[in-house]
Amino acid sequence: MSITRDFLLQFSLVIVPFGIYLAYLFGHIRIKKHIRIFLTALWGISIILCISFPVSYGYNMNHDFRIVPLLIGTLYGGRITGVILAALIILYRLYLYGTNIGSLITFLAIIIGFSPILYFQKKFGNSSKGNRIKLAIMLAGFYCLVGASLVGLFRGISAESITVQIAHFGLAAGFAWLMVVLIENMAEIYTMRKELHNAERLRLIGDLTGVFAHEIRNPMQVARGFLQLLDTPDLPASTKKHYIKLSIEELDQANDIIREFLLLGKPSTENNEDVDVGNQLERTVNLIQNYALSKNVSIETKIDVDCMINGNTQRLNQFLLNIMKNAIEAMPDGGTIVASCFFADDSFIEIRVKDEGIGMLRHEVERLGSPYYSLKESGTGLGMMVSFQIIESFAGKLHVFSEKDIGTEVVARIPGVKRSMNKPV
Ligand code: ADP
Ligand code: MG
Q: Is 173 in contact with 136 (CB distance < 8 Å)?
């Protein structure tokens, strides 16, 4: 019974720090160096705890699963992380027990058992999921085998010690398998989520393509008209100049529209920066203004100056377009949208988009954000899900208030930042 308890303790000593990483840090820290430092610290804590509370198999035989954090830390964190973790094992062992046979065994086990892990680290990074799992199991198994052989060599072999070593070997390999499968599956979900974001953005662009084509054709036709007029004989020089000026203005406008459109299609970089929400809100409204007018919807804006947040500009724009589009689509008979952004009292920035549309019932509001939940014939039901995720990635919260047949208000609360001094105001 106590073996089971000891084993479960070891299990949680590895799983809990990893769980903390998944729950609080995964996807939140974006700088690779920081991720590495955090992971090294977490796996280091795991290793120290594993060594401190080993599984007691009886017959004076203690074992622990330090190999699992060492293996996973090295394979996913890189060679430097691995060497730091290996050094930590040796130093901590020396600190606890001083120089004895056990410390020598640990030292030799690290030299022999850990070297292949370092060697295969690069290969692991380039392997498929299936091969990664196999490689991790083999490396964990090899490390245990080395440990078992060294113990046999220095302490002698008995029937009991062989049983314990076999059990330990199996458990360590199983444990390594579980961790790699867990990490790989999480990474797969994360990548899928990112792909979904891109898919949704492309769909949005597809939806708006017709609108933009119209937008660009208009100034082109006006410019064409002026060019034709320029061909009129005996045209006074001042009129000619005026026509040319108007044509250039129209072409500039077409150029602006194309630039905005291209910006929307650009894949979002992961980098966060300080963004002025007011500017982006204004841009989005300009972008979608004519689409709204074609549906008899007018958009009013109330924008405070200096609403700065830390986020990704393209993702913010994607969010604004998503909720504006929903607001427009919620008003088939037209109406007014009020889009505002301002400082809320507690250093938060609030973005509000309010429509007078069809509204939603309570259970419909509760389902918002679930993938593929759409009440529209040609809807994808991804817009709100992506919107929730975008605001979360800015450490903010998204709230939706809605009343059937009255209207809906979408409110995003995002921590504000001070405008940095070295940027132009
Ligand atoms: P889609 O717009 O493709 O249907 P979304 O995730 O953007 O997907 O929205 C999901 C559903 O939520 C919509 O189908 C609609 O029924 C409802 N919804 C979203 N925004 C509003 C709104 N402003 N007013 C009324 N219903 C809305
Ligand atoms: Mg939508």
A: no
